[in-house]
Write a structure and sequence with these properties.
The protein is α+β, with helices and mostly antiparallel strands. It contains 3 helices and 10 strands, in the order ββαααββββββββ. The chain has helices at about 10-35, 45-70, 75-80, and strands at about 1-5, 5, 85-95, 100-110, 115-120, 125-135, 140-150, 160-165, 170-180, 185-195.
Length: about 200
């Protein structure tokens, strides 16, 4: 999985939220838990060490929960405007020079990382970079670069780009793809989501 970009500016706001939540949790640990282990104001060095460790642990736990799970909750996702395209998809790659090519796609996505793995009978591609554009949150757009590894001698491995639109109400990704000079090909992609990860 790799990082991706998005044209919103709420990343720092979310980090502040996680930091404040961690500080509140840390305060609760300091007031209710640490004294049970004999870590009180009488031993300032131990208390400061306990505060530091508990803040570090609580921040990382909350960040991990947000990164993998919390951001996908409907109300949170609506507020932060990060499209959730994770899941398994099926569809076709369409090119005027060929018959439609059946394809299966698995998208693994967290709040900070993503990978799109596209498989056909003859090739396997993975994303290298991706950007979301969410001005129209109900139908956000994404552009990504990929590298396609061929499994047959007559299809050269190549890089390329794809520009897709996510139709949220229909659970559909569709758009255009373009390959580099090793393949010099272009066409369309149509995918329907089977399930959400």
């Amino acid at each position: 999985m790799h990082s991706y970009s998005i044209d919103t500016n709420n990343y720092s706001t979310i980090l502040w939220f996680v930091t404040i939540l961690s500080a509140l949790l840390n305060a609760g640990l300091n007031i209710f838990i640490l004294p049970k282990f004999g870590i009180t104001g009488d031993n300032l060095n131990l208390q400061l060490l306990g505060l530091l460790i508990s803040f570090f642990v609580s921040f990382n736990v909350i960040f991990w929960l947000f990164d993998y799970y919390i951001w996908k909750l409907s109300i949170i996702n609506y507020l932060i405007k990060y499209p959730n395209i994770s899941g398994k998809w099926t569809g076709t790659i369409n090119n005027p020079d060929y018959e439609p090519i059946p394809t299966e796609v698995e998208i693994k996505q967290t709040w900070t990382k993503i990978n799109i793995n596209l498989k056909t009978k003859t090739a396997n591609s993975n994303t290298k970079a991706l950007a979301f554009f969410v001005e129209d949150y109900d139908n956000p757009k994404l552009i990504y670069m990929y590298y396609n590894e061929s499994e047959t001698a007559d299809l050269k491995s190549h890089g390329g780009t794809a520009k897709l639109e996510f139709l949220k109400s229909e659970n559909v990704l569709k758009g255009d793809y373009y390959t580099d000079k090793h393949r010099t090909n272009q066409g369309t992609i149509y995918l329907k989501r089977k399930n959400i990860n």
